[in-house]
Amino acid sequence: MAKVSAPEFKLPEFKARSVDLDALFALQKANLAVAHEAQTVLVEAAQKIVKAQAHYVQDLLAQLKANLATKEPKKAQTVLADVQAAAEKAVAVGKSNVDLTLVAQRRVADLVSQRVQANINEFKALAA
């Protein structure tokens, strides 16, 4: 009787690409550094806004105390001028806070944008 031999089946050889772990860790470290810097920018902006608001409230309270300390009624023109000054100050403080917020947001957007571009470039280099 003839021996029947089955065809030999060979699995394709698996070749894993080498991964540069040092480069990946450096990439992640750079990402974390940018995240930290962005967080610092936002916290500093928040601190400046809170300080500006605190000064504004202190000024309002001082004005209120001064107004309550006087016993004689004020003229309508004086009251109107005080109200206008208070409104102008409120608008100025609000505008300043918006400006601080926009500057911080732009800075964070720039940081993130630069980091994303650097990540793309580094991944391309790692893949090559």
How would you summarize the topology of this molecule?
Blueprint: H1 21-69, H2 76-127
Describe the protein's architecture and organization.
The protein has 128 residues and is an all-alpha fold. It has one domain (21-127). The chain has two helices and no strands. It has helices at 21-69, 76-127. Helix 1 packs antiparallel against helix 2.
Helix count equals 2
Radius of gyration computed on alpha carbons: 33 Å
Tell me the distance between the termini.
56 Å
Low-confidence stretches: none
Order of helical and strand elements? HH
Structural class of the secondary elements?
Answer: mainly alpha
Average pLDDT rating: 89
> How would you sum up the global shape?
rod-shaped
**Could you estimate the helical fraction of the residues in percent?**
over 70%
Tally of domains:
1
Strand content of the residues, in percent? under 5%
Q: Count the E strands.
A: 0
What kind of sheet is the major sheet? Answer: none
Descriptive keywords:
mainly alpha, 79% helix, 128 residues, 2 helices
Quick take:
The protein has 128 residues and is mainly alpha-helical.
